[in-house]
Amino acid sequence: MLNIVLFGPPGSGKGTQSEKIIASWHLVHLSTGDLLRAEIAGKTPLGLRAGSIMQKGELVPDEVVIGIIENRIDQEKDAKGFIFDGFPRTVEQARSLDALLAKRQLEISVMISLDVPRQELIDRLLKRGKEQGRSDDTLEVIENRIKVYEEQTFPVMDYYKKTGKYRGVDGIGSIEDIFKRIIAVLNV
């Protein structure tokens, strides 16, 4: 079973590359944002708890997010693997994910980080903001999102480096060139 944690700062191409990975390896996409919205819409006990927390503008606690991920993994009995998108965001979440997978005799296969220089990220996001009219793609917001990513994510990357599962992939070039680099990592 192939279980991938896909990382990259805003604008690195995670969404595009995760779609290509999912299509090629037939993995189940686990996006914490999508899962939270589905649980809330389904009025599950975890969804009701998450919804009340989110209505207050607070972050959903790790144990709720882990519970939602655990429920989804258990629903996918025939999965060939999972791609984790937007999770884990902290070292504690990475440890919790490892523990929940270990209970099912599973583990993270690889953590792929799409590496893109800061100025390229800014340029890509400003372009996307103009093309798609996204209000969250202003220079000030972009710089803050990158800063938050760097502060939260570097410790998680270090965690996966220590486990030997971290793989950095050059995120510059055409979509196909970047995907070929990912394929090379996954075929090792």
Explain this structure.
There is one protein chain. With 188 residues, the protein is α/β, with parallel strands linked by helices. It has a single domain (2-27, 79-186), classed as P-loop containing nucleotide triphosphate hydrolases (Rossmann fold, 3-Layer(aba) Sandwich), CATH 3.40.50. 59% of the residues lie in helices and 14% in strands. It contains eight helices and five strands; from the N terminus they run E-H-E-H-H-H-E-H-E-H-H-E-H. It has helices at residues 14-25, 32-41, 45-55, 62-75, 91-102, 118-132, 139-162, 175-186; strands at residues 2-7, 28-31, 81-85, 110-115, 166-170. It has a five-stranded parallel sheet with strand order 2-3-1-4-5, sandwiched between helices. The chain is globular.
Task: Label the overall shape.
Answer: globular
Overall average pLDDT: 90
Total number of β-strand segments? 5
Assembly of the depicted chains:
single chain
The CATH architecture term is 3-Layer(aba) Sandwich
Under CATH, the topology can be stated as Rossmann fold
Structural class computed from helices and strand pairing: alpha/beta
Q: Let me know the largest β-sheet.
A: 5 strands, parallel
How is the largest sheet built, in terms of strand order?
Answer: 2-3-1-4-5
How do the helices and strands follow one another from N- to C-terminus?
Answer: EHEHHHEHEHHEH
- CATH H level: which superfamily? P-loop containing nucleotide triphosphate hydrolases
Domains counted in the coordinates: how many? 1
User: In what range is the share of β-strand residues?
Assistant: 5-15%
Report the radius of gyration as a whole number of Å: 17 Å
Uncertain ranges: none
| Number of H/I helices | 8
Which CATH top level class fits? Alpha Beta
